[in-house]
Amino acid sequence: MDYQGLLHDAMTAGRAVSGRGRVADYIPALAGADPAAFGMALVTVDGEFHGVGEVDRPFSVQSVSKVFTLALALAHGGDHVWRGVGREPSGNPFNSLVQLENERGIPRNPFINAGALVVTDRLLGLTGDAAGTVLDFLRAESGNPFLATEPATAASEAEHGHRNAALAHFIASHGNLENEVEAVLEHYYAHCAIEASCRDLARAGLFLAQHGMRAGGGRLLSRSDAKRVNAVMLTCGTYDAAGEFAYRVGLPGKSGVGGGVLAVMPGRGTICAWSPGLDPAGNSVAAIAALDAFTTASGLSVF
Ligand code: GLN
Questions:
Q1: pLDDT score, position 256
Q2: Looking at the whole model, is its pTM more than 0.70?
């Protein structure tokens, strides 16, 4: 497989549409991102690496972190997380409040904000440091000890976080948080504000392509939990555009409003694409176009 050639063509397809996206500005610290930036990294289970564009430029991982919080909660024995969060697509925007009221404080899935707050809460209960656990794991798996939370982004999110605070309080009002709302929000903002590159995230997600085995050997998740996390990524990882993502890309994927998308080719490897311009659902226009081009040309989807 000519991965390098495929990535190159995928980047061309992504760059052709990057002007159609809009950088997230509801978190002011993200508003300054360069909409023309683009990177794409591919790591295989045999240890091959390929990259194009700004593959080593760090960006705000935002909701891509949610796949790691879920995996780490399960890895720490947090199966009870499924009592407080569902696993159905939401069909609503990632920060929607309305569904949470109808469903009595049990978020639809772990990847919308409400669900991620519940998972962060459980990880905090299990480890005493949810954001630190995510950061340590990302550092270990990526082999990059310099990964860190960008404090200005976390502070900016907290300052403009009325909606997330409303979600967290509403969940708490239904008795679905174990920890104080303020602590849960602080850890949530801190793991969303971690900065990492496409190379870092593709490496860190490799356990998802290896049926739960970590990059350096050793098991993070059972085979079935790895299957389950991938399944929830496919059905819920790109919010109310998950159907469109499955249709176009055909891989489990998780996006973030920093413009990153981490996709998994089970048994084969991971790909992370990044470009800050977003579509109205909050997913990177160019990253998805590039992943679409990659799986279409290579045939490497799960279907
Ligand atoms: N931290 C962001 C928020 O809470 C994450 C959203 C996202 O990346 N979709 O709004």
A1: 98
A2: yes
